[in-house]
Amino acid sequence: MDELKPMDAEQLREYGHKMVDFIADYYKNIENFPVLSQVQPGYLRELLPDSAPVHPESLQDVLDDVQSKILPGVTHWQSPDYFAYFPSNSSVAGFLGEMLSAGINMVGFSWITSPAATELEMIVLDWLAKALKLPDEFLSTGQGGGVIQGTASEAVLVVLLAARDQVLIRAGKDAIGKLVVYSSDQNHSSLQKACKIAGIHPENFRVLKTDSSTDYALSPESLSGAISQDISSGLIPFFLGATVGTTSSTAVDPLPELGKISNSNGLWFHIDAAYAGSACVCPEYRHCINGVEGANSFNMNAHKWFLTNFDCSALWVKDRSALIQSLSTNPEFLKNKASQDNKVVDYKDWQIPLGRRFRSLKLWMVLRLYGLENLQAYIRNHIELARKFEELVNLDPRFEVAAPRRFSLVCFRLLSAENNVERANQLNRELLEAVNSTGELFISHTVLSETYILRFAVGAPLTEERHVVEAWKTLQEKASFLLSKLIE
Amino acid sequence: MDELKPMDAEQLREYGHKMVDFIADYYKNIENFPVLSQVQPGYLRELLPDSAPVHPESLQDVLDDVQSKILPGVTHWQSPDYFAYFPSNSSVAGFLGEMLSAGINMVGFSWITSPAATELEMIVLDWLAKALKLPDEFLSTGQGGGVIQGTASEAVLVVLLAARDQVLIRAGKDAIGKLVVYSSDQNHSSLQKACKIAGIHPENFRVLKTDSSTDYALSPESLSGAISQDISSGLIPFFLGATVGTTSSTAVDPLPELGKISNSNGLWFHIDAAYAGSACVCPEYRHCINGVEGANSFNMNAHKWFLTNFDCSALWVKDRSALIQSLSTNPEFLKNKASQDNKVVDYKDWQIPLGRRFRSLKLWMVLRLYGLENLQAYIRNHIELARKFEELVNLDPRFEVAAPRRFSLVCFRLLSAENNVERANQLNRELLEAVNSTGELFISHTVLSETYILRFAVGAPLTEERHVVEAWKTLQEKASFLLSKLIE
């Protein structure tokens, strides 16, 4: 056997160029794939061997397998015809940042393990905070600062833990069964999961009901009522999760009012703007986060709609010591002079894992290679495309727009002639299955006030007006077919 | 302003090729950098602007800044002269896998969001389980299975949560204050952090003392004694964290005995083989995980010493339903037919975050492009280099090997003429600072039984015998200098 040279610079160059061409060709042909993978469960096991090879195989063999076996099982989030969930943007700049991070391949748990990784992250999150006009208290130059988490789930978990531990220091650790968390029923499931992880009792997770009267935003009255009741029952309200741009319908919770209630009751106030935060770099959308000055923490996912490849979830806190108090460990084998002199940030103490990638590189490259003006134009273009889609829906009397469109998501549904909610829901379920199984577009769904709703989320980097128009045609055709079957 | 085309296939091709060349050149010149970055805290803020650019900048400008501003702040984990902590391997195959994953950029939380991502992960972790000769119960074809976590910290957290919730179902959620976790004082700090997150009371985290009499392995007697005492105090022992290859000295806990004690007391038995797991693909090291058949979960980091770029932490469990019960959420907006028919694995329910990268690609490419035989030779070569370093230490009477070498880590120290522990410790601290500040090599330290120990961990992909010999020469020179100063 030849000696293995697993990191030969010239082999990296040769193979790296091949892979770049493979990926560039993938994007060139991306419209030819079914957006939603059409494979059946277990398809891949039949195509691959049962065990790892003993001897090396060639790169060409692997690339051939990617083409013939892997790509058919991929749901193409970067397809211009992808309108499901929320977007997860890839871009040339984000991709280059990922490459560079994978190339350097360092593990930045402490400042000393790569000062540039920690410092660039602090700087770039300050840049992004300024672009969002966050209050200065969220900047790293004061008591707060930003940190890149993998996902919004991890962001809400770490701040929930910080808030929990602050309260338990005062109330004693046996008080955990009394801690109460609040959010609307439109809040992302990640908060519920964070509560389970943190040991918050499930019956103390208050899911406050919303409806169309507030466009599915959390009502301040409902929150203060719940808090008063819990206090009078001897419980300890301690955390509010609010959302700017809910997953189901991009509702925006009334931050200023919620902030007042949180502050006067001593709650940690967290804002999840995972999706809609990106829009707030545009001056005309910045008002959506008015009230952020009353929050303890704020989160937006640069990996959703801000051209930064997954994963890059930006979290800012006003009081970094709360995070550190909750999440720091200091084993001997990681001790070093810079950390012990308290001169540096060690991001290991702001997150769940110890190890961490050099994720700020990709966000830095996105901001530099595109510039804020271009990024604003990018966001506005998607919102305009969604507005056009909404217009198309409104022009067809068989459909209705089912919730106000605020950003680039349109919630809509096919109306049923009969006045029967379950039949209408079934009709829309069938419409979803029908369009997704064409492979021509991919949309997802939600339920609002027991009504099944289709979600059309514009936001893939390659989406143009023609893709939106074609998607609508397919939706209309499938709707016509389903409605005609009903008449038969 | 020109229209932004953030994902233009031909721009990706052009810029991608440039970045490949940049990274290949980085590896070509990697020996020219100081291994440990020599910058001062805050260095980067002085070099970068205060806010993000409004207008786009050129790729060349960014690459120039990477060269002149970022790389000086990087600690070069891939340098052949990197011997600190544990390795974090990069390889051509791992790098290609990262590129491809970043190129496809999908978010595989549920099977449907990219069936290939879920299925390849199941298959490749079965491959790796077979290479490690893990019992069949850990394969995905039964009730168990493997999953890629970001880090060993997340791996131990998710199994701790699964174990916690299983016990609390029986004992009631108010029993959380009675739950007891066990590990040796050599266990990684990630278990302590996981306990904090999960709400285990700090006084119920039993850190069992080890010493040189067991080569810093956990003594079964000490464990069973602690369990008996806790049971008689009305507490509930529920989790044991054992280690194969501890961070300080690569000690190996006696798995068969620990397994018996765990099983007879109903504890969840987790094995952390984050570093040393890789060695167990070699038949002559497989005995180190004898006893894994008694474990509930087993973890090894392919991103440490198995040529798979960070992050790729492989976790196997025998009972996947325990994880799912603890970590699943099922919001309406993620419901889909494949999941509801229970025909598929949705890895979102095996981990903390919702979103997840296509991480199996890089492990698959490592296994295919190198083959198991090459990977075994790779591991053996590092162990042989460590053996040579140990030999060099033994030849110099001013030094001693401070703990048995089992894999590719050598624990050693400079002896002090006086018989004073603190003076000897200070001497070794000074030696560490002296060699690391040359930039010629980077080593780290630990403390064993109050003695400050230097750690020399071989494992970077480019390390050859000459690097080990040169590192030893630098250590000897700096030691001579420090000892001569003492005599003056």
Automatic annotation (TrEMBL), chains A, B:
Its Gene Ontology cellular component terms are: cytoplasm
* N6-(pyridoxal phosphate)lysine modified-residue sites: K304
User: Which controlled-vocabulary keywords does the entry list?
Assistant: Decarboxylase, Lyase, Pyridoxal phosphate, Transferase
A GO molecular function term, named singly, is: pyridoxal phosphate binding
Name the coenzymes or cofactors required.
Answer: pyridoxal 5'-phosphate
Matching entries from Pfam families are given as:
Pyridoxal_deC
Q: Which InterPro entries match?
A: Aromatic_deC, PyrdxlP-dep_de-COase, PyrdxlP-dep_Trfase, PyrdxlP-dep_Trfase_major, PyrdxlP-dep_Trfase_small, Pyridoxal-P_BS
Q: Which GO terms describe its biological process?
A: amino acid metabolic process; carboxylic acid metabolic process
Recorded hits in SUPFAM superfamilies, A to Z, give: PLP-dependent transferases (SSF53383)
The record's similarity note reads: Belongs to the group II decarboxylase family.
Q: What is this protein called?
A: Pyridoxal phosphate transferases superfamily protein
Q: Which organism is it from?
A: Perilla frutescens var. hirtella
